[in-house]
Amino acid sequence: MALYLKHNDTQLQVGDTVKVHQKIVEGEKTRTQIFEGLVIKTKGHDGEKTFTVRKISSGIGVEKIWPVDSPFVEKIEVVGTGTVRRAKLYYLRNRTGRLALKVKVRRDTKEGNVKAKISKPAKKAAGQTGGKPSQKTSSK
Fold first, then answer.
1. What is the pTM of this model?
2. C-beta of residue 73 within 8 angstroms of C-beta of residue 53
3. Percent of the chain scored above 70 by pLDDT?
4. Lower CB density within 10 Å: C or N end of the chain?
5. How far apart are CA 82 and CA 24, in angstroms?
6. Residue 127 burial (CB < 10 Å; 0-12/13-18/19+)?
7. Residues 65-92: tens digit of each pLDDT
8. How far apart are alpha carbons 117 and 135 in whole angstroms?
C-alpha cells in the first residue's frame, strides 16, 4: 500500500484535493481536460501505482482511476491537503451533499506546524461557589 505518490515533482496522498490535467485525443486533435476532486485511494507499488479521484458532478459521484505513470496525465496540482485516519475513503461513497467531500484540512506552514492552544478555565478557589447564593427559608 502506498502512503503517498509522486508524479514528477508533485507529492499526493489520500485526503488531498487535486486537479488532474488529462490529455484527451479526439481524432487528430488533442485537448486537456481538468478533473478536480478528492483522492480516496492509492494502490500498487513500483511501476503499477494507481490513484482514484472522486468528485460530485451534478449531484452524482464520479470516480476516475489513473496510473501514476500514465502518458495521458499531463500534470497534477494539489489544491488542498487533508488529514484522514483511513487509507481508503470508501465511506465517502455513502454520504451525500457537503458531507461527501468533508475531510479535515491540514494546515502546515513552512516554518513548522502552527496549532492554536485552547486554555482551560482556571479552577475556582476554595470557598467560592458558582451560581446564585442559596436562600434559607424559615418555617414558623
1. 0.66
2. no
3. 65
4. C
5. 29
6. exposed
7. 999 888 999 999 998 888 888 888 888 8
8. 40
Distance CA 42, CA 79 (A): 17
Among 61, 60, 32, 38, CA closest to 51: 38
> And the C-alpha cell for 53?
479521484
| Distance between CA atoms of residues 53 and 20, nearest Å | 9
Alpha-carbon Rg for the chain, nearest whole angstrom, is: 25
DSSP helix, strand, coil percent of the chain (3-state; round to 5): 10, 45, 45
Q: Which residues of 45-65 are buried (b: 16+ CB within 10 A; e: fewer)?
A: eeeebbbbbbbbeeeebeeee
Which residue has 484527451 as its cell numbers? 24
Q: Please identify which residue in the block is written with the cell numbers 442559596.
A: 134
Closest to 19 in 3D by CA, of 47, 45, 55: 55
Which domains, and CATH codes, for the chain? Answer: 4-105 (2.30.30.790)
